[in-house]
């Protein structure tokens, strides 16, 4: 988005040598979640290490959003556990951020949306302008957030997440309703964040997007992880029929 230096300090948790507890490995162990009498997440196991962009892909209803919310600590599994470097997910929520498909914004100005987060998290208020420039919204700073377009609103939601200096950023189909230019703008910010050391977990059902972004792919199907592999290997030769069908655009149920 901008040529300005990355406007926040990523703490690079995976390799951190400070006294903060390590976040990785991030583990979901035999996690189950039943909703409306159906097992939405069904004995899921996943271990994430501390680098790069993982895209979580899979057909509608596979459990991608629920998995993300469980990793983030927003929902607790019925059984099994999610741990971050051995600690419960709820204990590290301040060190990670989640961006939803529909932007969550305050009914205030664009700038005030960031001021609020920076103030709450003890961030430097002077970073607001750098963040707005970073996401290409400096010229909209005084405008009410509710008048932003969908793509602009999502960039502001992303800036709000970045303002918390997350070590890990979860994104749940953040470009699902955006046009191609807005989608690519978001993807560029995500890549820049990864390059600055932030760990990214990105849910998408857009195979093209997964190809553009992923270092690693987690393929989810019917509430379970069917494949977890390096992106090139996954797209060159998926190991399961369900993943092959999904990549080729055939309907997977
Ligand atoms: N609050 C809920 N109550 C009942 N069932 C739910 C609830 N939330 C999710 N589910 C069900 O759990 C399953 C997984 O949902 P989830 O939203 O995680 O899927 P997803 O892989 O993100 O799908 P999509 O690509 O369509 O967004 C779906 O069958 C969904 O209907």
TrEMBL record:
Keyword annotations: ATP-binding, Nucleotide-binding, Transport
Residue span(s) of domain ABC transporter: 26-247
Top-rank lineage group of the source organism: Bacteria
Record bears the keyword Iron: no
Family annotation (SMART domains): AAA
MF terms (GO), sorted A to Z: ATP binding; ATP hydrolysis activity
Keyword Coiled coil appears in the UniProt entry: no
SUPFAM superfamilies listed in its UniProt record: P-loop containing nucleoside triphosphate hydrolases
Record-linked Pfam families: ABC_tran
Name under which the protein is recorded: Tungstate transport system ATP-binding protein
